[in-house]
Write a sequence for this structure.
């Protein structure tokens, strides 16, 4: 996933997975001669993200890793909490995870590119990846399915993404973080509800009764994907008419969502 001389941006929220990935990559980087820089996204979720980012900073400070933070408020003109309130006032239905997911990915890519990263590492573990596979099956979202994998090379303007912990069960990451006595933030996002939680509970029940199910779902998905050679839909990279970031259409998804909320700055 990483070659000597690369500059790897690690997305660090302060949770156990990202803190573990940060330490592992920092240690591996010393041995294998690549650089590590941490990126945190502050969506503006009061009482949750402020605390987790403090933990992330304690970790990067303790090992002397460069750390940049991107705030929704600074880049999008409003916090996620503010967007949720705004949508309520406008009587719009807003699913916070959609906004959060799209805008967090946007900002991670932008910041990774701006700090000169050659890869962007995220701390998705086996459980996260299998949940994503199931969710996209249920939704029939082939375009998202084909993006799932250990390495995702997109196109110009997008920093290639890697998931070093993709085959490690969540429990094992937790035990490792505990044994290494890493400082981690353990709270749950107040917006996390809905189908994601149901899929997680279903998979945990399945795994308890039929051990190895999660890993087999991942392996089967990978081999089906390789055989079908699901291609990304061919599209040219364009620049968003509004913000200039790379996108497949005239206006990027983040700007579309901001527009619906009336938050686009002229
Ligand atoms: Zn845009």
């Amino acid at each position: 996933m990483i070659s000597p001389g690369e500059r790897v941006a690690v997305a660090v929220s302060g949770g156990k997975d990202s803190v573990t990935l940060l330490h592992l990559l920092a240690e591996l980087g010393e041995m294998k001669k690549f650089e590590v820089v941490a990126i945190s996204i502050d969506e503006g979720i009061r009482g949750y993200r402020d605390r987790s980012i403090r933990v992330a900073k304690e970790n990067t400070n303790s090992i002397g890793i460069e750390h940049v933070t991107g705030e929704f408020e600074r880049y999008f003109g409003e916090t996620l909490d503010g967007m949720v309130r705004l949508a309520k006032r406008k009587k719009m239905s807003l699913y916070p995870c959609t906004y959060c997911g799209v805008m967090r990915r946007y900002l991670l890519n932008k910041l990774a590119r701006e700090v000169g990263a050659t890869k962007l590492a995220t701390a998705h573990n086996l459980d996260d990846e299998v949940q994503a596979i199931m969710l996209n099956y249920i939704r029939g979202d082939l375009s998202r399915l084909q993006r799932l994998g250990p390495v995702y090379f997109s196109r110009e303007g997008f920093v290639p993404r890697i998931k070093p912990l993709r085959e490690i069960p969540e429990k094992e990451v937790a035990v490792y973080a505990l044994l290494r006595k890493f400082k981690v933030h353990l709270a749950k996002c107040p917006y996390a509800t809905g189908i994601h939680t149901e899929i997680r509970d279903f998979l945990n029940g399945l795994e308890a009764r039929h051990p190895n199910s999660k890993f087999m779902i991942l392996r089967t998905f990978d081999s089906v994907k390789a055989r079908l050679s699901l291609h990304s839909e061919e599209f040219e990279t364009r620049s968003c008419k509004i913000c200039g970031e790379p996108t497949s259409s005239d206006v990027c998804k983040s700007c579309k969502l901001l527009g619906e909320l009336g938050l686009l700055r002229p």
Summary: The mean pLDDT is 92. The chain has eleven helices and eight strands.
